[in-house]
Write a sequence for this structure.
């Protein structure tokens, strides 16, 4: 079985940053309920939803660049020493001299209002498209986290169901073995069998008890792993309402859909990233275009040598205009930025082709593993039924005195081994079914 892998995964997960403490709860969940709970409590999903909100805010932030920009200003100055300038002495009838003259007043104040409006900027228009695409990328990333959470919860849920099935088989074995042990002990007291016959059954019984204790502990650990994958506090009480026989394990035909990869969220994410890279190329191209800006401002200036009369009168100034910014020389930076952006597009396209091949291979492998798992489970189930019949016949022969206790012990061991093989095949098939649904893109949110 692959149970140790999940134990290791659980231990590693505990090392990751945990969500804020949640209250302990008591719940009885079906698989569907467990997945729904995880979609609203699992940390990765919650963080992805936060990232989606951040993306929406960034779209609005980018949109705001093209909206009117208005600002107000208030200024006050106290010239402790009024600036002095030298002017030619000819103005005052003193040729050849430089006469110091103070220009200005001690107190100056101004109140102003400025407004600007972007009329045209190619990079801004491309930026708006990129912002919307970035929002789309963030939304798909949330879906990816929901899918991964659903897969993790489903596998953990099936792991608990398999442990419960294993525990049921062990309990049935223990009940049957205990009855056999009681019968053999009674026969030993009456002198019909040897003590070694009793000892052999005791050894089997002790081994089964030890194995059951191990499965009980493993079951508790897997339940905690399930709670962790769901985002539920480890101290909560969780029971499962689904049974192992309710799992959907129908026959699956091999599909030859050449476009199955398009259903995968990973491909959709990379395709959206390619759109962003293509928009990046357009943005760098737009940097070679001029931009147009309209502006206007109005202000009131106050000047006086006395502070008490500073605001008695003002001198207004109002201006409107346009500004055209034309890029001429940038040291070649824009050219190389554009070239690198085009190369990034090529890389993404290569990754898309590689991902398509990888998904097709994953689908083929998942279908093969699932079909092989179905056949293996059917075989192990038949073997288990045969082992039960062999044990029944062996016990009858032993009770009738035509068989040995060693044959009974061997039959008990063979039955336990067949049951372990059945449990392993059942677990593998359930996990392969989840992997197949994920590979085909059938898990969507």
């Amino acid at each position: 079985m692959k149970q140790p892998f999940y134990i290791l995964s659980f231990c590693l997960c505990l090392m990751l940053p945990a969500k804020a403490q949640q209250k302990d709860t008591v719940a009885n969940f079906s698989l569907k309920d467990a997945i729904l709970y995880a979609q609203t409590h699992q940390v990765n999903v919650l963080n992805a939803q936060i990232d989606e909100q951040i993306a929406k805010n960034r779209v609005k932030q980018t949109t705001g660049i093209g909206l009117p920009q208005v600002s107000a200003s208030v200024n006050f100055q106290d010239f402790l020493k009024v600036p002095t300038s030298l002017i030619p002495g000819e103005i005052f009838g003193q040729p050849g001299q430089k006469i110091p003259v103070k220009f200005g007043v001690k107190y100056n104040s101004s109140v102003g209002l400025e407004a600007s409006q972007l009329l045209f900027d190619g990079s801004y228009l491309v930026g708006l498209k990129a912002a919307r695409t970035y929002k789309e990328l963030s939304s798909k990333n949330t879906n990816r986290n929901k899918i991964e959470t659903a897969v993790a919860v489903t596998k953990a849920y099936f792991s608990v169901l398999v442990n419960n099935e294993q525990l049921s088989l062990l309990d049935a074995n223990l009940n049957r073995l205990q009855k056999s042990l009681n019968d053999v002990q009674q026969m030993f007291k009456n002198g019909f069998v040897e003590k070694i016959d009793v000892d052999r059954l005791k050894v089997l019984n002790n081994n089964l008890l030890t194995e059951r204790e191990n499965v009980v502990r493993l079951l508790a650990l897997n339940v905690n792993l399930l709670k962790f994958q769901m985002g539920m506090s480890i101290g909560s009480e969780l029971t499962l309402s689904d049974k192992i026989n309710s799992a959907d394990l129908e026959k699956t035909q091999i599909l030859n859909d050449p476009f199955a990869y398009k259903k995968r969220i990973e491909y959709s994410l990379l395709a959206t990233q390619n759109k962003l890279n293509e928009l990046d190329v357009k943005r760098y191209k737009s940097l070679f275009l001029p931009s147009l800006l309209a502006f206007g401002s109005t202000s009131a200036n106050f000047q006086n040598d006395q502070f008490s009369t500073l605001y008695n009168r003002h001198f207004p100034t109002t201006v409107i205009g346009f500004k055209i910014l034309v890029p001429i020389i940038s040291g070649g930076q824009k050219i190389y930025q554009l070239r690198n952006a085009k190369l990034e597009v090529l890389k993404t396209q290569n990754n898309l082709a590689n991902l398509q091949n990888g998904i097709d291979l994953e689908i083929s492998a998942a279908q093969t593993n699932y079909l092989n798992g179905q056949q293996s489970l059917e075989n192990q189930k038949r073997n288990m039924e045969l082992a039960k019949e062999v044990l029944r016949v062996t016990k009858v022969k032993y009770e009738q005195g035509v068989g040995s206790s060693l044959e009974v012990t061997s039959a008990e061991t063979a039955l336990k081994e067949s049951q372990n093989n059945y449990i392993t095949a059942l677990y593998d098939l359930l996990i392969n079914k989840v992997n197949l649904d994920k590979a085909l893109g059938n898990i969507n949110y």
User: Anything to note?
Assistant: The radius of gyration is 40 Å.
